[in-house]
């Protein structure tokens, strides 16, 4: 049998009788420290790589949102464009409510805009369109939609208003708001509008038919004292060019 003394277990004694604690062998500890430092470095690199990936994904999502926004909005005014407007209009028409919810489309055309463009230049014309767009946006309810169809033509989508007197008041308000004088630099302008109104389902059950019929009514409104009128099938302009673009 091997006998081990207490001195051997504790370690050699100092001259005063106190036990000496053995210091671990540095050569044995060094590799473990190296492995620990390496693992910590790899963890830091992994965290940096994950942060880069997260930033890249966030940037990609932002670019996708911006691309969708550009595809559905007018670059000059920031309003929804014709494509977006027609998508929303089709959704409103396909709501499935019983009885069907009345949807109204107001087609708005600026009178004499070409003359303003020719006399004062496209920069002034573009600024006028931006002001008109802003006025229209602030004239409607939060749930309504205002879009720029193109050129000097705009449209409004209103749901749940079937009373023609109420729609007449909306059209009158728009005409009044748009007719307020506009100052662009040293130039002072006044823009008037003509508005055609079409309602579903009486005047159409698709986005295209409603916009086309509101467009037809708008041409008739140019000869009306009120500057707005409702669509009537018997007075639709013959040979009217249909709405272009995707519906």
Brief digest:
The chain is of the alpha+beta class and 247 residues long. The chain is 49% helix and 16% strand.
Give the strand tally. 7
What is the CA-based Rg, rounded?
Answer: 37 Å
Helix content: 40-55%
Low-confidence stretches: 6-10, 238-247
Number of helices: 7
Mean pLDDT: 84
Quaternary state reads single chain
Helices and strands: which structural class?
A: alpha+beta
Number of domains: 2
| The CATH homology group name of the largest domain | Reverse transcriptase/Diguanylate cyclase domain
CATH class of the largest domain: Alpha Beta
Straight-line N-to-C gap: 99 Å
Major sheet, described briefly?
5 strands, mixed
The spatial strand order of the largest sheet comes to 2-3-1-6-7
Describe the structure.
By secondary structure, the protein is of the alpha+beta class. The protein has two domains: 1-72; 82-235, 2-Layer Sandwich (Alpha-Beta Plaits). The protein is 49% helix and 16% strand. The chain has seven helices and seven strands, in the order αααβααββαβββαβ. The protein has helices at residues 6-10, 26-72, 82-93, 113-120, 122-139, 164-179, 207-221; strands at 103-111, 145-150, 153-159, 182-184, 187-189, 192-199, 228-230. It starts with 5 loop residues before the first helix and ends in a 17-residue tail after the last strand.
Blueprint (SSEs and pairs):
Layout: H1 6-10, H2 26-72, H3 82-93, E1 103-111, H4 113-120, H5 122-139, E2 145-150, E3 153-159, H6 164-179, E4 182-184, E5 187-189, E6 192-199, H7 207-221, E7 228-230
Parallel strand pairs: 6-7
Antiparallel strand pairs: 1-3, 1-6, 2-3, 4-5
Helix pairs in contact: 4-5, 5-6
